[in-house]
């Protein structure tokens, strides 16, 4: 299968009006705890952004801000030029895997239909809804197990169904919280390739929180590294360096590049592989 060229020549100097996600001088504190401060980001349509950093740095909290669930302490966040709000149709969300356990008895097609119904489109009748569910399941390669109980599917199969559900509103922005967790390398690569194809074909911007750097490295455009001593945004080669990570952790960190990807050495608290 050939994947068409990207929808846009990547340029990160985006006009804030056309940006899918805009954070300006954004800070998030919980009481005395300052998770991140002065974050500026304009996300291009079709861009693939990886959010990396140690446990507890504030990566999931960033997704919650974009979902309209947690207010910023300071600054501004907008989705496609509008203020964030819960259930914004332009935003799809793939939650962490454990969120699915309550739905284990459902079938994939039920879960995907919930993604459509939950947004109350007035979609135009049962037949159209059924066709849309079939289309979404086919797009993620889940047609063959569309009627199996979710609880019996493998982690990789469940992840495809979650992605299909998150795409039910044809979002401009897809937020994924550790979608590669507990998948083997082949399934990790399958999920990343699926997301990459989506953003290339439809211009859906992807924001992925992950501890797994190597499976995504060939695809990501930019990295947002959230660390104990600051946040840094840039291309992977700008951010994933010994100098930058040593500065962000204020302790010596070494980034080693091999033919198979990168290894980050020097800290117990760094992303696990
Ligand atoms: N509503 C809240 N009130 C107070 N503290 C909170 C709240 N939400 C999150 N926190 C704290 O903020 C910190 C960051 O949490 P978050 O889940 O964003 O981290 P993370 O970078 O996603 O971590 P992990 O990699 O472990 O998933 C944690 O210490 C968490 O306990």
Summarize the structure.
Helices cover 27% and strands 25% of the residues. The chain is of the alpha/beta class and 273 residues long.
Please tell me about this protein's structure:
With 273 residues, the chain is of the alpha/beta class. The chain has a domain at 91-170. Helix content is 27%, strand content 25%. The strands form three sheets. A six-stranded mixed sheet has the order 6-7-8-3-9-10, sandwiched between helices. Strands 2-1-4-5 form a four-stranded antiparallel sheet, covered by helices on one side. Helix 2 (108-117) crosses helix 3 (126-139) and helix 4 packs parallel to helix 5. The longest helix is centred in the last third of the chain and has 18 residues, at 185-202.
Helix-residue proportion: 25-40%
Give the distance, in angstroms, between the N- and C-terminal Cα atoms: 29 Å
Give the tally of β-strands.
12
Total helix count? 7
Counting helices, strands and paired strands, the structural category is alpha/beta
Chain oligomer state: single chain
Give the integer mean of the pLDDT values.
Answer: 86
The H/E string reads EEEHEEEHHHEHEEEHHEE
Q: How does the major sheet shape up? A: 6 strands, mixed
Keywords:
ABC_transporter-like_ATP-bd; disordered N terminus; ATP-binding; 6-stranded mixed sheet; alpha/beta; Metal ABC transporter ATP-binding protein; globular; binds adenosine-5'-triphosphate
